[in-house]
Amino acid sequence: MEPKKEKHEKPKYDYKADEKLLYDTVIVGTGVVGWATAMYGGRLGLKTLIIGDIFGGTIILTHLVENYPGFVRLTGQELSDKLEEHARDYDIDILSDRVERVEKSKRGHEECFLAHTLDGKKFFTRTVIFATGTKFKKLGVPGEKEFENKGVHYCALCDGPLYKGKERVGVVGGSDSAAKEALLLTEYAKKVYLIYRGEKIRPEPINEKRVEAKIKEGKIEILYKTNVTEIKGDKLMTSVILDRPYKGNKEFKMDAIFIDIGHIPLSELAIQVGVKVNEKKEITVDRKGRTNVPGIFAAGDVVDTEFKQAITGVGEGVAAVYQAYKYVKEKEHQSA
Ligand SMILES: Cc1cc2nc3c(=O)[nH]c(=O)nc-3n(C[C@H](O)[C@H](O)[C@H](O)COP(=O)(O)OP(=O)(O)OC[C@H]3O[C@@H](n4cnc5c(N)ncnc54)[C@H](O)[C@@H]3O)c2cc1C
């Protein structure tokens, strides 16, 4: 007898996606926002397809989420798994793939969109919701590319353990996530140097207190008004060059440097189909998640909101899919 499958057992790959269908909505992106949006799409009875290349997105890079209501404390991976599991509880289609292009199209007389994937699949859909998030901003200094994964990293959770017991590790940045990266790295390296170009780091107050405590313990030191201008090494990185001398020297020996200086919105697909973006290339949406192109919606880190968090993005995604639902119903009403 076959073992009974758990309701939420996760297949390794999903190809439950039908090229013959006209979907009500295609959600691009499988971060927390994509999953929450897909869950609500299923709940609203929309024929929903979610396509993503990295299941979980950015949040899985953090070891500690303490600000998602309902969960006092959990890892980013756990939060993403919970949202994915919730989405899978509804009748939605899921595809592990990358969307390469979205274009305006027609199916019979009906105007719609066509989403093309890297694997050469094509899906017709009445609406598209971009939840494509962001990618890491690079420092753009000599040595960064050469020593990537050889001392230069972008995720403390993923690569921090490599530096257990090492003398000095740096973090470039001054945001809340940079502070969290530095705090996590104190669990591995003997000392963490937070290198920030500004005058005052700006983490959430609770994380600021944690950083202050680590400064008192001698585990963190902050170098203000300082930029890294070069990363040097041989086979592995060995030092960074600073634009402001530290203890009289511009060259600072370091075992690794973690870069957390912000993110670039992944809005190119939206731009190609005529969606407006702001000067930071964030998708411009109204309070309901609507873009300037009827039938196209967006939510999460890729849009022009100020406060980018899992919970805000999830709320935006739910608001956007509700608008997609209203858009689909309106179209059905018109063609009846
Ligand atoms: C170190 C760190 C710590 C953080 N800590 C917290 C925290 O404690 N609490 C909190 O609320 N927030 C935190 N954040 C912010 C949080 O991670 C983001 O706000 C949130 O993950 C955004 O989700 P998203 O779904 O909009 O985007 P993302 O998580 O970036 O997901 C987008 C997804 O879309 C996929 N994608 C993009 N383009 C395509 C395409 N063309 N085809 C298919 N798939 C595509 C991407 O691969 C990705 O999987 C932290 C961020 C960082 C970097």
Textual characterization of the structure:
By secondary structure, the chain is of the alpha/beta class. The chain folds into two domains: 194 residues, FAD/NAD(P)-binding domain, CATH 3.50.50; 108 residues, FAD/NAD(P)-binding domain (3-Layer(bba) Sandwich). Helices cover 25% and strands 28% of the residues. The protein is built from seven helices and 18 strands. Strands 1, 2, 3, 4, 5, 6, 7 and 18 form an eight-stranded mixed β-sheet that branches. α2 links the parallel β3 and β4. It is elongated. 42% of the residues are buried. The N terminus is likely disordered. Flavin-adenine dinucleotide binds next to α1, β3, α4 and α7.
Structural class, from secondary structure content?
alpha/beta
Fraction of residues in helices? 10-25%
Mean pLDDT: 93
| CATH hierarchy: architecture of the largest domain | 3-Layer(bba) Sandwich
In CATH, the homologous superfamily of the largest domain goes by the name FAD/NAD(P)-binding domain
> How would a textbook summarize the main sheet?
8 strands, mixed
Low-confidence segments, given as residue ranges, are: 1-9
Q: What is the count of distinct domains?
A: 2
* Measured distance between first and last alpha carbons: 49 Å
Q: What integer value in Å does the Rg equal?
A: 22 Å
Would you list the SSEs in sequence order as H and E? Answer: EEHEHEEEEEEHEHEHEEEEEEHEH
User: So what's the CATH class of the largest domain?
Assistant: Alpha Beta
Count every helix, treating DSSP H or I runs of 4 or more residues as helices: 7
Beta-strand residue percentage:
25-35%
Secondary structure tally: strands:
18
CATH topological fold name of the largest domain: FAD/NAD(P)-binding domain
Q: Which ions and ligands are bound to the chains?
A: flavin-adenine dinucleotide
Q: Which geometry do the CA atoms define?
A: elongated
